[in-house]
Amino acid sequence: MKKVLPALLVGALALTMAACGGTNPGGTPSSGGNGSETSGPTNASAWDVKDTPYDQVKDGGNFTASYAYQLETFNMNNINGNEQTAILALSPVSPVFWFTDGAGATTINPDYVVSADDSIVNGQLVIDLKMNPKATWNDGTQITAADWIATVNAMNGQNPKFDVASSDGFDQIVSTKQGADPSEVIFTFKATYPDWIGILVYGPMRAESCATPDVFNDGWATMPLGWQSGPYMIQSYDPTGGDIVEVPNPIWWGQKPKLDKLTWKMISDTTAASQAFANNEIDYNDMGPDANAYAQAQGTPGAEIRTAEGPNFRQFTFNSKSPNLSDVNVRQAIVMGLDRSQIASSDLAGLPIDPKPLNNNIFMPVQEGYVDLGAKTGIDYNPDGAKALLEQSGWVMNATTGYYEKNGKELDVKFAELVGVTTSENEYQQAQAMLKEIGVKLVLQKVNTQTDWPGVLDKENFDIIAFSWMGTPYPLMNVSQIYGTPFDSNFAQLTIPTVDNNKDALASEMDPAKRLAIGQEDAEAIWTAVHTLPLYQRPEFTAVNAKLVNIGAFGMARQPWDWTTVGYVD
Fold this sequence. Notes:
single chain; disordered N terminus; 15 helices; alpha+beta; 4-stranded mixed β-sheet; 23% helix
């Protein structure tokens, strides 16, 4: 069972997911033409990063930020390495083959890619990727087709011993081979595959770093120099304290990065991270919907709060294998017993937004394809309806305790509260009070994020758990990963036949309208089955040193457009 671990609310940015996407859901993302040059994001209005031309950014300066969890591995493609705050911390030392802006538009990064041509041959998608021959790993070895061949072999799911975060997309590739020279690689897919950029966007792994399951799974505990590539390189890593220090890569072939040093401190507690920003110990803090952090940042001299409308959302995941949640009527009753408007208002109190419940697992309200599935299906806040559903399933109210019972057992459900994550703590308190009103007993299960995470989620040691799914520009790319079988990231362990039956069509349909309709069908099936319950769209509030530019709230992107441009202005 291969799983990708989502970034929690204490995390920052985008993780691959099925639930949200760009401005053209179902469409084919732009490859940015032949990619011979690029000057900046195509739609800067979708994010808030204080866009500043490279030549106006000062040379020099240090940048300090935080990440949320102790690194188990530097391999971001490993199930234990795909945590978003770590992904952000490692992005300056990792390849980026396509730049992505806040609206989700992609443009070839000419430092790595010369061109990427797509064609359909006998019903199969063929991608001819020509890489910049100057592109190297940090020991000077050229990045070649051999690296892509090894990466696809590791990631395609054919060998289950590779603990991959997700094989989605890679499992659609039937052939990866060198072209006319080592800088050219040709990918042939089983059929058409509209989201192909989504699996190629961050480049390959070094061939030797993923040659065997043992190396892929365990060989990344430390980061060998030759497995990095980017404008920066890791100078040091303190596995005890967690500090990662990155400095400019002396053999970088692109434009010179502006900063002298990047330091990433491991700070798991959101309150501690906010205090560190207020104390000028860090220059960047993704605050999430934390009103106290927002107010603290407002009062911090020299600080600036940057905001964006991202594709991320808070949600409750229901473990369908838990005895009391195996009945869909119970899951639906819990949905109908939760006033998500009140939960959103409580979570987001003190923030300058109008919180509304999110009634779709795949599309955001502003996106084409969004349907209010709570209204359409009737599975929405309705306490009386919740009680009726429970009674249909044979639950009987105990007038003394105020909770439903069946066969002498109380209807209780464990809520895995992430200690130190204020939203998780608040959501438990809110949900406990609401569910008591419909006769469901919510029992506290405290999870220490230092010692228990991610095992609680990965081993399904919960009944209900709350975290944020983080979005990408590819809204329909990973529906089967999160909501289908086998249970890659399907932490609910719930089989939804519609999703499984639509998997191949959703992965191959190149017509945007037809693909959108398939996604809508999946969305309704997911909602009705109560796999997960979206709470609300998660706003992006990032506290930043006001003189720091080209970084901030990223919208659909998961990192800066180009790390070489991140720096300070007077």
